Amino acid sequence: MAVASPSKVMTNVEAVRSTLYDALKRDDKAVILGEDVGNRGNVFLITKGFIEEFGPERIIDTPIAEASIVGIAVGMAMEGLRPIAEIQFADFIYPAFNQIVGEAAKTRYRSNGEYTCPMVIRTPYGGGVRGALSHSVSVEALFYHVPGLKIVVPSTPRDIKGLLNAAIEDPDPVLFLEHKRTYRLIKDDVPDEYFTIPIGKANITQEGTQLTVVSYGLYAHQSLEAARKLQDENLSVEVIDLRSVRPMDRNAILDSVRKTHKLLIIHEDNKFGGVGAEISAMVAEEALFELDAPIRRLCCPDVPAMGYALPLEEEYMISTDRMAEEMRAMVRF
Known about the structure:
alpha/beta, 14 strands, Rossmann fold
């Protein structure tokens, strides 16, 4: 009889902290840098105590200068280190856009493979925490267009550990997006042992036959919750948690659509030009005649920012009930 591997229940934020700690212990080339990651231990206390154990040469407090955080990490990566750069909130990533897009993502190509850029850029993103204008943004679509850059969006503690380990080991830059609403909301049983999850491999969280729903991050949980509610109505919805948006598990999406013949994409980012647009185009190109209904996208509104007032935030975010309503309408189309 097989003996189960030791594990423990963690929240998402605990999984980030535990995985980073293990990476620092495992590899002395791993370095963390960012604003307040040292003495303060990160605004979410993810790196609390790290500087005392690993020292200021590996846990580096930086100025409030995102361009330099990522630029320095690029140099570290090219010189053989494994930097894990933190952008305190995704809303602050814009000054580092050139370093991410123009430098990190192009390193392997511009050097004809002589150099790689093994670095991770971690940042919390997303709404639902009353973060308003400067602490609620989703940034995946801003970087989604960039070849050479991987974008990972885990939703569970187990996925965080497996995908963050994979990101740290990856020879190319990885943007690792952590939905801060899930930090203490989501719990899961996480194996103690080291493991990785392949970047670009989706997770089918519920099988179904009448509709495919594709989502990621916080909405991967809400989509699953909504789909489970519909089971009481004998409606069968397949739910796919992408886990990474570039590379994307095209086969998982296409195989599911060819089974259910209907597709609903749900994401928190704005609708126009978002990840859902690329999924829609891909399915239309490769499986159009498998569809029994138009592809639908349920996304947040195309407005500049999320409001602080609770009614404005609630209007911006997509509720589980609204997801269930959209799923129900599509199944019965």
